[in-house]
From TrEMBL:
<keyword id="KW-0472">Membrane</keyword>
<protein>
    <recommendedName>
        <fullName>Anti-sigma factor</fullName>
    </recommendedName>
</protein>
<keyword id="KW-1133">Transmembrane helix</keyword>
<feature type="transmembrane region" description="Helical">
    <location>
        <begin position="20"/>
        <end position="41"/>
    </location>
</feature>
<keyword id="KW-0812">Transmembrane</keyword>
Length: 183
């Protein structure tokens, strides 16, 4: 049998509480140091750069810059012009806006038009300089909303006139003039 009178009920527990208190103290000190360090050590102070590099879109194409163009630290200065159109066919029912930007070897043309729905025909955009007329492309759209977007090398900036024609055949000759304009 066991002698219950000689039992020692004052058994010392392991010093886990001291380790636990040290761990808590370490966490508190680190929690206090971290925000203070972030406040005093701003980005760029330890050789870090504040510039964020991102991947460029995949459909970008390089351009050749003419060294005679005005280039500043922010890029190439593009000249932007808008065209005013006159309806020569439908008595004011047709209208369009065109803008072009060029410089640095690049030419950008944007044409938006409200035109009657052509039946089995196409609308085409032409650029004009004096007696010289060149076809650009057929317009895209349906019903009465039509548009054209062109991005090319700068070979069109000396053309100051623009036509929209109704074409029955796909050839190099302008047919029925709808709108005529100039930049």
């Amino acid at each position: 049998m066991r002698d219950l009178a000689n039992q020692n009920f004052n058994i010392k527990k392991p010093k886990a509480t001291a380790k636990f208190l040290r761990l808590i103290l370490l966490i508190v000190v680190l929690a206090a140091i971290f925000p203070i360090g972030k406040f005093f050590l701003k980005p760029g102070s330890l050789g870090e750069s504040s510039i964020v590099l991102r991947e460029a879109p995949r459909n970008l194409k390089p351009i050749n810059v003419d060294l005679t163009e005005s280039i500043n630290s922010e890029g190439v200065n593009l000249i932007t012009q808008s065209a005013t159109f006159k309806d020569v066919q439908y008595g004011g029912e047709a209208n369009a806006t065109a803008t072009r930007s060029f410089g640095g070897g690049t030419y950008i043309l944007s044409v938006d038009a409200t035109l009657p729905d052509p039946v089995n025909t196409n609308y085409q955009v032409w650029l004009v300089s004096g007696q010289e007329v060149i076809p650009i492309n057929f317009m895209n759209g349906s019903k009465n909303t039509w548009s054209l977007r062109l991005r090319s090398s700068d070979k069109y900036s000396n053309y100051d006139g623009i036509w929209i024609t109704l074409e029955r055949t796909k050839d190099e000759l302008p047919e029925e003039h709808i709108l005529e304009g100039s930049f």
